[in-house]
TrEMBL record:
It is found in: Cytoplasm. The lineage of its organism: Eukaryota, Metazoa, Chordata, Craniata, Vertebrata. One of its GO terms (cellular component) is cytoplasm. GO terms for biological process: protein ubiquitination; ubiquitin-dependent protein catabolic process. The active site is at C912. This is HECT domain-containing protein. It comes from the Eukaryota. Residues 616-944 form the HECT domain. GO terms for molecular function: ubiquitin protein ligase activity. CDD domains: HECTc. RCC repeats lie at residues 71-123, 124-175, 176-227, 229-294.
Amino acid sequence: CVNSGKDRRVHSLDCGAAHMLILSSDGKLSEHSISATANKSEMRLLKELRDKYIVQIACGDHHSMALSKGGELFTWGQNSHGQLGVGNQTAFTNKPQLVQELRGIPLAQIAAGGTHSLVLSLSGAVYSWGKNDFGQLGLGDIENKYYPSYIRALEHKKTVYISCGAEHTAVLSQDGLVCTFGAGDYGQLGHNSTRNELTPRIVTELFGARVSQIACGRWHTLVYVPSLGKVYSFGCGAEGQLGNRDTSNQLIPLPVELPSDWVNGGKLNQGNSTSEKVIQIIAGGNQSIVLCLKKKNPYVTLNGTAIAEDKEVDKWISNSDPKQWETIKKTIWLIFSSEACVNGSFLDKSRDKHFRTSKEISGVDMSAVLLFYEKMNKKPKVFQEMISAVEKLLSLLSSSPSSPEALRLYLIIPVLLRGQDNMSDCLLDRLAAAILSLQQKDLKVLESLWSNLEISFFKDLVSIYQRVSRINLCLFIMQARNSEEVTCEPHLNRTLKMLQILYQVNSSAGFKIQENNFYVPEVKMIWGQDWDLDEGPTFEQRIKNEISKRLETRALLKLTAYPCIFDMQDKIVVYDIDRQILFGIYNENSFLVPWFLAIRRAHLVDDVWQNLRSAAPKTFEKFLKVHFVGEQGIDDGGLSQEFFTIITRELCCPEAQIFRRFEDSKLIWFPSQVPGSEDTFFLIGTLFGMALYNMKIAPFHFPLALYKKLLDIPPTLEDLKELSPTEGRNLQEILDEDYDDILENMMIDFTIMKEQGGSIVSIELKENGADIPITKHNRKEYVDAYVNYVFNESVKKPFEDFRSGFLRGCPAKKWKLFLPIEFLTVFRGHTKYDWKLLEENTKYEDYEKSDQTIKNFWTVFHELPEEKKKNFLAFLTGTDRIPAEGMRHFQFTIADFKKENPDLFHPVANTCYHVLMLPRYSNEEILREKFLNALEFYEKFSLS
């Protein structure tokens, strides 16, 4: 007789070879050692578990398992084969050990074999460990495992129940399929064989019969098929445990002979939901039990990890009984201070989606999480308890979750902390710290889960960390202004790192949301939102005058580790500061010496190449001033812009025969063979870098792919569509083709045709490519190889020369902040013109906007055709492009030329300062004549 304790009702019990566990209805556990000689047992209270509410127990031959309501798994006993799952440091322990490897996984069931152990998660994931000499762990080998190992063969099989024999294992799927593995010497696997199975194998004899229960004895197995009302057995029958009036073994499932008074029309229960009786099967060592129970008094059901369920939550919200409040508080604390409980809550069971949990699918119903938050937020008392529990949880998180299931809380917790109060913001910072402390492999899985969130929830997550970053940045700026040292506070670094990681996830996912969702506009507080980059007298003087707050400048540069927080204007400012530091503008003791580049218009390219070849590396750190030999004019920016405009045109023209030109896009790309001098592309790259370093527009007609490559971003098929629309369209059609026979008729293989030495040759895209036809299975590989050849393999030498030259010509590094499209815009400038906005932004010197000359000027200007208006920009600035900041930030000044006989003079432009010197013409017709003449010959008249 075993005494379970005064006034305690036994909930469940399980036996090993010489011990027994008894679990009471109030979650208390006792262990009883059973002597083979004495007719009594010795009880031992497990003091290590006295504060735990135990919901499940399992006994192996000489080891024990216990699952707590909080989702913790404890094991103790013999560990000679690793059956405790805690490593192999000890062969035996009588103190329950927490299985750390399963932390955070919401467990639905535990099971113990002779010397092996298994657990099942709420999402159907199965883990095994311990002795494996017959393959009973289902891992495909016979090596013992000392820590839980995921049975990958059961992935997404919708496993709902597990059972262990001495040396074999059975699992049951939601669809009623039974798989067995391990020792098969008695036929206990049901495969009509005595062979061992190292991986799960379906019991085909049961195929088509929807099994609802399984149970493993030591060397035999039972299954129940409710639709047939039959229990089947197979395996060892030496003790009559198969229930067939025989002691022989059975290799396949055969019906158990049940008592005749249970039979109704020859079948049990028939699966009829209206039946008053239910069947429960149990398998012991060499025994089998079939219970026929009344529905109102069924066999005890398994309790698992506690989770937040709708009915329970509604009770929390509606409760008005103070006596119940303590119980509710304990439940809330139990669930929301436990990784496993949170991870097991809010599962998306629609179409069994939680069974498909993987690195891409979280299995979380995010809408349910949001609804839960909204419910809880309406009851501040209950909500505050939950937040306090979450605070405890965040201090306990593991840095190495063992599966995607254990990462769900990182999707759930931000929704619970979206309240925009100090406590929530503080906990969001702690959550960020926990995420950033994850091992890299686990962080990658979390990033994958983020990338597969619905857009609204991903945007909400970004918004949460953007808002907290804005608050932290304001505090940081205040500190920078009041301190001699500039250090980014850890909390600011953490939230900004989170934002940057989310930005990279967004980028990899094809920009699910727009980049402006990541901008932190408070960065403008550092450099001053009203700092106008285009306003005179000189940029160098403006930098010295405006950036007197050096601590703030250093602060701004520290923040460049998080480029996602900057909009394009911010990035341009940061890049300007970076290059001005190299210029020496921030050094009070330095004397700014420019690089005077003297060149002849008639020999422009030759003179430039000669200068670039002879220039020392340090020369490129100086700011550029161009002098056209034999011409007047001092370069304060206008002449150098004119220089880049002219030389870009000369290098890109077809007559130069430098680049490969694509007629259908009018874009250029590198040739596969270097024309002319060996250093041509190195010099062009140097010139390209100089344009960026000196912030001049250089409209080379390169595709976006060039800027991607400079930023180490691989070009894609979309880039080929831009460069060569016809080729890109053809490749897309190959990807979109549905029928194999049409692909075969195309007669395409892994080759590409190209012109070489005046003839067309075939280049293999992979080894033996000419012998590999394109099919639906390899067409993506073909397209990727084709794109790679065009943008990488075929132009490796000229591009590498170009890149080397670019890095020489642009010693500043902060250009890496730009996105490819922003990078392109910095070089090419804008070609989207808003002429009305140009008029609105114009300033006047010795003129009033209401003066008749000004009115006449704008009347004439707006009547011009588009090309003439663009010519005016070139006349005014040296280029017909708008700088990267856009038309909104572009200004020019109209000044009175102050001539005694104004009708005799043409307007003159100062390209360095964007000033139009406009005489006060007597009427509109004279203004039109003189203005059009000036535009027609703008290259002559635009000298400063």
